[in-house]
Design goal:
Radius of gyration: 16 Å
Order of helices and strands: HHHEHEHEHEH
Distance between the termini: 50 Å
Strand order of the largest sheet: 2-1-3-4
Number of domains: 1
Number of strands: 4
Helix content: 40-55%
Number of helices: 7
Length: about 120
């Protein structure tokens, strides 16, 4: 059993590499088109995290407030892009919004990565 533990760091690096490659090379979502057509970026990080850096024109609704803050997003058919630090909280936010009846929700993943994709020329 002990010999299996030596592979944990390699497994973690492999998973991180797969996530990076997937996000870097296989996300063909046209975020700019979404934004040009009235889309909204919702950053679900904490207020402190959001204040340390964010995407221009994104709004901050922390994940723990998203279910009770839907009045800030009255149009349930509006294109919504969720983001956070890594993509985990934004995935949860997407699920919450869909459960509340929102129909066009996309998990944009980490905000830095999303910002890079938006600003890509």
């Amino acid at each position: 059993m002990k010999e299996y533990f030596q592979y944990i760091p390699h497994l973690i690096l492999f998973i991180i590499a797969i996530i990076y490659i997937k996000d870097k090379f296989f996300d063909h979502t046209d975020y700019n088109s979404m934004l040009l057509n009235g889309g909204l970026i919702i950053d679900v990080r904490s207020k402190l995290e959001f204040s340390s850096g964010n995407i221009v024109n994104s709004i901050n609704i922390p994940l723990n407030e998203i279910a009770s803050s839907t009045q800030k997003i009255p149009n349930k058919d509006q294109q919504i892009i969720t983001c956070c630090a890594s993509g985990m909280r934004s995935a949860s936010a997407k699920a919450i919004l869909i459960s509340k009846g929102y129909t066009n929700v996309t998990n944009g993943g980490g905000w830095v990565s999303l910002e890079r994709k938006i600003n890509k020329k």
